Amino acid sequence: MTAVTTPTKKPVTRARPGQSSPKLAYLPIIFLAFAIGIPLLIIVVYSFLEKPSQGTGVKWVFTTENYRALFIQEKLDGTTAFDTRYIKVLWTSFYYSLITTVVTLVFSVPVAMWIATREARKRTLLVALVTLPFWISILIRTYGMRQIIADEGPIGKFLGLFDISWSILYSPPATILGLIYVFLPFMILPIYASAERFDFRLAEAAYDLGAKRMTVVRRIILPSIRPGVISGVALVFIPALGSFLQSDMLGGGKTNMVANVIANNFGQARNWPFGSALAVLLIILTLLFVLIIQGIAQRRGDKVELV
Amino acid sequence: MSSTKTPSTKRGKLVNLRNFPGFTSTSWFVMFFLYIPLVYVVIYSFNSSRIGSIWKSFSVKWYGKVIENTDIQRALKNSLQVGFAATILSTVLAVMAALGLLRMQRAGKAVAMALIGAPLIIAEIVLAVGTLGLFIAVGVPLGKVGLIVAHTAFCIPFALLPIRARLSQLDMAPFEAASDLGANERQILRRITLPLLSPAIIAGALLAFAISIDDFITSFFVAGPGSTTLPVYIFGMIRSTVTPEVNAISTLLLLFSGGVLLGSYLIQRKRR
């Protein structure tokens, strides 16, 4: 096995003249093991510990109670009942992220294709316009959206002229709108990167050879932008699943997503072990989604790099 | 037979495959959607009225309030200190990682990439509470040192992105030539590698700085009461009393972010 792979692998690791020693990477790896690896490990360990009778932190007693508490509620009279609250929280996060992904995708494909077919000068400007929000604080962008959709904001005032009442702030649609708003550039940019490389003469050739317009879209254009679509779906769905600010600022606490419940358990609720169990569940869901995306990309033969 | 005619006239009309119906209007709508909340915040930062949603008259008084606000000054100072420290540390570590990983064995490389990529994939809230747990466990006081450590960690993947991209495009000939001519590893690093990588290093550093300055969730959990950063302070302002002061400070931050982006664009353009 190694004998077969040697000729292709060896040059990668062999000391090429002039290249730095791999020892250079040791310090960053040790640092990241401390600052990223250990925090993740701590979350896993805490999820199997008990909550202290008072104060914050953990009590070093092993228990699987935190995972049980995700699904089963202990009533005051000692009976137990199936508890759907946290399943609902997870479902809400999943469902909101899914809607966000679908809506951003539907809008991003036309936008990315449109930008890709403009002339070079205009294209640079348009790409900069889509990139700029990426550099602006998500907190401020979410705040801006809140001002727009507030009851007495511009939409509310406009509709007020026709005596139509407007009140969506602090509701699920407001949270979803905020997610769409914040993550839209994450979908447009990778699709644009694929569309920009597409040679539109291929589409014209297919058309000239007798393909119908929809066939050209389905068989020539869409397969060419698929790597961008897959990257975009991952770049929107993954952060949306763990998003905190949108449901906090726009959902008004009524529409809790999993990140808000985790934050609450490490904050006011003071139940670190239970918050950790939820965090572990969120990690598992995220990794599961990454595996699915990579599986799809691999089967299609697309090169999609998430990291 | 129709084959004697050209294909496009065969169907009676010329079809432009580069323009689909509705794409232009959709794109304008999306651009409008992306910018209208930001424009609204900027416009209302000049509103003299105390009630955010009612326009009274043009005024810059909220900017005066922002500048006079000592809490904002302190938060800005904290943000800048943490941001600069995290930018320098994460960029240095990213350069080291990028160069070292080139020659690393498969297994070590996989572990390193998993650690580097983790902040991009795992929800920030999870890393934030984990980092809080770590700091409490090892007794790191919640404050600037902890903030710098946490920010450095999640800035590394962003600083690394442009550096790795540039490294993969580099022509190896100058390295081999230098080595053949007797330069040692340190000389090659200082005289060839770093100068060739410098545009990417600057781009990576700017990205890291922007990410650090904008961070909310991690800072919210590990800042502690004494070292509140600007986003955490703004979040508190939005939660308690929304005065037009929030619009003014947001506008200043927008200008700042735009300036950083413009700076990185100009640097990359100049080097090309």
TrEMBL record, chain A:
Residues 1-16 have a biased composition (Low complexity). InterPro entries: MetI-like, MetI-like_sf. The keyword Cell membrane applies. The chain crosses the membrane at residues 24-49, 94-117, 124-144, 164-192, 220-241, 274-293. Residues 90-293 form the ABC transmembrane type-1 domain. CDD domains: TM_PBP2. It holds the Pfam family BPD_transp_1. One of its GO terms (biological process) is transmembrane transport. GO terms for cellular component: plasma membrane. SUPFAM superfamilies: MetI-like (SSF161098). Keywords: Cell membrane, Membrane, Transmembrane, Transmembrane helix, Transport. It is found in: Cell membrane. Its main location: membrane. Signal peptide: none annotated. Residues 1-20 are annotated as: Disordered. Belongs to the binding-protein-dependent transport system permease family. CysTW subfamily. This is Unannotated protein.
TrEMBL record, chain B:
It comes from freshwater metagenome. The keyword Zinc does not apply. This is Spermidine/putrescine transport system permease protein PotC. Required for the activity of the bacterial periplasmic transport system of putrescine and spermidine. PANTHER family: PUTRESCINE TRANSPORT SYSTEM PERMEASE PROTEIN POTI, SPERMIDINE_PUTRESCINE TRANSPORT SYSTEM PERMEASE PROTEIN POTC. InterPro entries: Bact_Polyamine_Transport (IPR051789), MetI-like (IPR000515), MetI-like_sf (IPR035906). The lineage of its organism: unclassified sequences, metagenomes, ecological metagenomes. The chain crosses the membrane at residues 20-43, 82-102, 114-139, 145-163, 194-213, 246-267. It is a multi-pass membrane protein. Belongs to the binding-protein-dependent transport system permease family. CysTW subfamily.
